[in-house]
Design a protein that fits this description.
With about 170 residues, the chain is an alpha+beta fold. The chain has one domain. It is about 60% helix and about 10% strand. It contains 4 helices and 3 strands. It has helices at about 5-30, 60-80, 85-110, 135-165, and strands at about 35-40, 40-50, 115-120. A 3-stranded antiparallel beta sheet has the order 1-2-3. Strand 1 (about 35-40) and strand 2 form a beta hairpin. The chain starts with a helix and ends with a helix.
Length: about 170
């Protein structure tokens, strides 16, 4: 399976899951209502966000549509560039693509992102954690994987240099 096929095989189902769960939320949960899944820990909600992570930069949906489109172009360029297969990179790009597409779809269709997963971690500054969605999860995991991957590549490069006696 080529890199692009692998990435689409992972991205498209996650994008579909994001959109299906948001449609379910729109039909099943009234805005700012909550359905308790795990009492005093996890709720399903219907919250809109026209800003960025943690509700920051509210009222800037157009700006975030433009940023999302730029990010989509960058990810697409990274996807089509001929490179050796790299599982960490490919999984990260697949997750990033799914997340960008999921939230961009919301911004274009509704003028905001639909968030519905709400955890109360019972710790300072995360009581509750801001609501998020499947696309946000994909983006967050992609960033963590990119960071881990960059440290692994750096470590491998240092070990390779040390092995050559540089």
């Amino acid at each position: 399976m080529t890199n692009v096929r692998f990435i689409l095989f992972l991205s498209l189902p996650l994008y579909a899951l994001d959109q299906l769960t948001k449609q379910w939320v729109l039909r099943s949960i009234s805005p700012y209502d909550a359905r308790s899944v795990v009492p005093d820990f996890f709720n399903l909600v219907n919250v809109t966000n026209d800003g960025a992570a943690f509700g920051s930069f509210k009222g800037n949906n157009t700006f975030f549509v433009i940023i999302s489109m730029i990010a989509l172009v960058v990810v697409t360029v990274l996807l089509v560039r001929p490179r050796r297969s790299d599982l960490w990179r490919d999984v990260s790009l697949a997750l990033l693509l799914a997340g960008i597409l999921g939230n961009l779809t919301d911004r274009l269709l509704y003028g905001h992102v639909i968030d519905f997963l709400l955890f109360n971690l019972h710790v300072r500054y995360a009581d509750p954690w801001p609501a998020f969605n499947v696309a946000d999860s994909c983006i967050s995991i992609a960033v963590v994987l990119f960071i881990i991957h960059s440290f692994r590549k750096e470590k491998a490069s240092v070990e390779q240099s040390a092995g050559r006696g540089d």
